[in-house]
Design brief:
49% of the residues lie in helices and 13% in strands. The protein has 5 helices and 4 strands. It is elongated, with a radius of gyration of 25 Å. The chain has 2 domains: 50 residues, no CATH class; 72 residues, no CATH class. The protein is an alpha+beta fold.
Length: 134
């Protein structure tokens, strides 16, 4: 029976797994020239993975879209344009001045949904609802 010896990278990876660490430091560069941390689970370079994910999944602010559907099932897209982002900034500033804390966009979104729900519960005309999204 032969014993199999693993590469130094694999041995460092196995040692990190045994310690319970998620990452380990590796001094030799990866194929893209990065030195530093690697994932213990698969030995991949953290910098390569983060660059790959950022390039693949992130979009500039002007390309982000919200999807709204009307009662007739027609789908409409609303872009985060400059005016929308300035509205969000103004809302953040107003909340910060009232509470002393800067809210995240997700908290503004949640508050906006609550206000919209309250507004819609009063059964406004369809034209006034559409005016909100123009």
């Amino acid at each position: 029976m032969t014993t199999r010896t693993h590469s130094p990278l694999r041995q460092a990876q196995d040692a990190a797994k045994a310690r319970g660490a998620k990452t380990f430091h590796w001094a030799e560069p990866c194929i893209n020239g990065h030195t530093g941390l690697r994932y213990a689970a698969n030995g991949n370079c953290l910098q390569c993975i983060s660059l790959h994910n950022r390039a693949r999944y992130s979009k500039p602010d002007h390309e982000r879209q919200l999807r709204l559907s009307y009662a007739n099932s027609k789908l409409v897209q609303v872009r985060h344009d400059t005016a929308t982002m300035s509205d969000a900034t103004a809302a953040k500033d107003m909340v910060r001045s009232l509470t002393g804390r800067s809210p995240s966009l997700s908290l503004l979104h949640k508050a906006g949904l609550r206000l919209l729900t309250t507004y819609l519960s009063n059964a406004p005309a369809a034209s006034s609802v559409m005016a909100l999204f123009s």
